[in-house]
Amino acid sequence: MDKSQDSIPECGNTTVYYHNNPRLCAYGAAFHWWDAAYTSLHDHDYYEFFIITSGRTNHLLNGASQQLGEKTLCLIRPQDRHQFTPLQGERCIHINLPVTREKLEQLCAAVGTTLPDLLRAPSRITLEDLDFAAFKQSAREINLLREAGTAERLTNMIICQMLTNALVLLSKQRVDDSPGAPEWLRQVLRRIHSPEYIACQASDIYRLAGYSPPVVIRNFRKYTGETVVSYLTRTKMDWAKRLLTSTDLTILDIAGRLGYGSVSHFNKLFRDFTEMSPGEYRRRYRSHLPG
After folding, report:
1. Domains plus CATH for the chain?
2. Residue 121, helix vs strand vs coil
3. Cα 172 to Cα 177: distance, rounded to the nearest angstrom
4. CA dihedral in degrees (255, 201, 134, 243; nearest 10)?
């Protein structure tokens, strides 16, 4: 495991500046593995996502100590002071994704959200198995590309795709944490946002909930402010934005993955939500991703 590429030396009780990282300066985003036993107490003038891929660690964040384990995704904001220290002699390894404010704002725009909205979401979540596996696979792809010494542009695209996935997963927690929502509804909302339910329909939601359609509809309106159908459609359009900007899937393929049998119907829904066609959206925002 190569920690040297894109890594930033940690100095005691200090601020780490993005201009000390050549890749962060050049592309606005970077990637490295971290497997040292500890870091010193520090903050940054940039944002940073990290994902623990194995082991556990003690994470000190703004004076509060947290024990973090595998599958944890965290967002560190500028001026957050934090430190990793060993936990019971365990070796902890995590993926580190530093990103400048400007680049993060571009990525937020590409998926139809804003940086202020992202910052209102929880800064720490536990990843579902499929999402966790996707991050690890992307990290392996970056390692292979670097070992070959080629495809720098593709490497940058994968880094930005990982960042986009991270911000989407954090952002959706604003809905999952609707105050007062019953636990069954929270579980349904989490499933709606997971990849395996990307093509689900209203009938699937009623079955998942285990309640009659009127009960489900009433609770959706109360805690999300939307009907089941409108909530599902908005979620699918968010997936569409993500797929348009982070993959080379055709619009036909994307429509099919989202459960739409008619491309023209998908195009109409997408235009209703974004005021542009899927093709226009891809051309406008795909250019933000390579860095």
Report:
1. 14-171 (2.60.120.280), 181-288 (1.10.10.60)
2. coil
3. 9
4. 20
pTM metric for this prediction: 0.61
Beta-strand relationship, 82-85 and 57-61: antiparallel
List strand residue ranges (DSSP E) for the chain, in order: 14-16, 32-34, 42-44, 47-54, 57-61, 64-68, 72-76, 82-85, 93-99, 124-126
| Rounded CA Rg of the chain | 20
Residue 72's pLDDT is 92
Phi, psi of 11 (to 5 degrees): -115, 150
63-105 pLDDT, tens digit per residue, is: 888 889 999 999 999 878 899 988 877 889 999 999 999 999 9
Residue 126: closest CA among 178, 67, 185, 79: 67
Amino acid at 57: T
